[in-house]
């Protein structure tokens, strides 16, 4: 199992971090989890291409996880993709994909994409999945777990298993038992992290130049309640016993030294801060 972090950022545009996306090579299967901003470009940077994708998993409907789905689909079709896309995500995924294709219908007709790839290839196959649902690939399996992303319901994480190897992608979530349970016995946990600086600085909503974007405390609190802070992550990862932890979904003003110090004060496994294009063998 080969994992590539394609995008490790958040909804806020960041020249250093594309939007949330992970690529997983599972034997012959080319698998994507989430389609954040810049994902198609990042794929090409690591020698992958949307034309080759077998499965696209979506964790939840927040735009930072879906915003480049149209770019992925159309890029594959333009490059003479030979097979339909298979998109697997929570309820709402089918409607979202239908609306997306409708939104780009004018472009699709203008380009006469059907002449390049055929209507059968452009017939996107959407599979909606809920907590505990599974999907089986050639020699691998994935299980959806419902995580706690506050007011975003449903929000999923995914557990990929191949032979005796197990990878957990948390999706966006506050600390939750579902992730701890899934990570227990796993080889690697990729977990989100939203707070990038000490809470008393209260300025984790900033643009890449450090300008504060959001000051209303109720919005800050809602964000904090639906994501995971470094102290919480260290504790939950240690409790799960997972031997390797990578953090992703990192804010523009992420203080790597501070967050690493907080997390590793409780988590004693192999810890890495995620960055775009980081590749790991599991
Ligand atoms: Zn989210
Ligand atoms: Zn997000």
Task: Characterise the protein shown here.
The chain has 282 residues and is of the alpha/beta class. The chain has a single domain, classed as Metallo-beta-lactamase, Chain A (4-Layer Sandwich). It is 28% helix and 24% strand. It has ten helices and 14 strands. It has helices spanning 39-45, 69-78, 93-103, 105-111, 113-117, 119-122, 177-183, 217-225, 230-240, 256-264, and strands at residues 2-7, 21-26, 29-33, 55-57, 86-89, 125-128, 134-136, 140-146, 156-162, 165-169, 188-192, 244-248, 270-273, 279-281. It has a seven-stranded mixed beta sheet. α2 (69-78) links the parallel β4 and β5. α9 packs parallel to α10. The chain is globular. Bound molecules: zinc ion (ZN) (2 copies). One zinc ion is lined by residues 60, 62, 149, 152, 172. One zinc ion binds at residues 60, 62, 149, 152, 172.
SSE topology:
Elements lengths: L1 E6 L13 E6 L2 E5 L5 H7 L9 E3 L11 H10 L7 E4 L3 H11 L1 H7 L1 H5 L1 H4 L2 E4 L5 E3 L3 E7 L9 E7 L2 E5 L7 H7 L4 E5 L24 H9 L4 H11 L3 E5 L7 H9 L5 E4 L5 E3 L1
Parallel strand pairs: 3-4, 4-5, 5-6, 10-11, 11-12, 12-13
Antiparallel strand pairs: 1-2, 1-14, 2-3, 7-8, 8-9, 9-10
Helix pairs in contact: 7-9, 9-10
The structure holds zinc ion (2 copies).
One zinc ion (ZN) binds next to loops.
């Amino acid at each position: 199992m080969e994992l590539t972090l394609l995008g490790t950022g958040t909804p806020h545009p960041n020249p250093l971090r594309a939007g949330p996306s992970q690529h997983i090579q599972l034997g012959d299967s080319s698998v994507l989890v989430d389609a954040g901003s810049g994902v198609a470009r990042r794929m090409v940077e690591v020698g992958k291409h949307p034309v080759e994708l077998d499965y696209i998993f979506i964790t939840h409907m927040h735009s930072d996880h879906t915003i480049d789905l149209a770019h992925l689909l159309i890029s594959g079709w333009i490059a003479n993709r030979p097979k339909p896309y298979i998109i697997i995500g929570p309820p709402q995924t089918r409607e979202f994909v239908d609306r997306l294709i409708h939104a780009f219908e004018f472009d699709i007709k203008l380009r006469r994409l059907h002449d390049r790839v055929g209507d059968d290839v452009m017939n996107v196959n959407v599979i909606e999945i809920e907590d505990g649902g599974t999907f089986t690939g050639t020699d691998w399996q994935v299980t959806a777990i419902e995580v706690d992303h506050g007011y975003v319901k449903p929000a999923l994480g995914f557990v990929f298993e191949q032979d005796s190897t197990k990878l957990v992608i948390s999706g966006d979530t506050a600390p939750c038992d579902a992730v701890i349970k899934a990570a227990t016995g796993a080889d690697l946990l990729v977990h989100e992290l939203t707070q990038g600086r000490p809470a008393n600085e209260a300025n984790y909503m900033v643009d890449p130049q450090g300008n504060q974007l959001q000051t209303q405390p109720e919005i800050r609190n809602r964000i904090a309640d639906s994501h995971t802070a470094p102290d919480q992550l260290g504790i939950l990862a240690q409790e799960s016993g997972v031997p390797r932890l990578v953090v992703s979904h990192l804010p523009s003003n992420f203080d790597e030294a501070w967050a690493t110090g907080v997390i590793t004060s409780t988590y004693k496994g192999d810890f890495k801060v995620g960055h775009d294009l980081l590749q790991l063998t599991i």
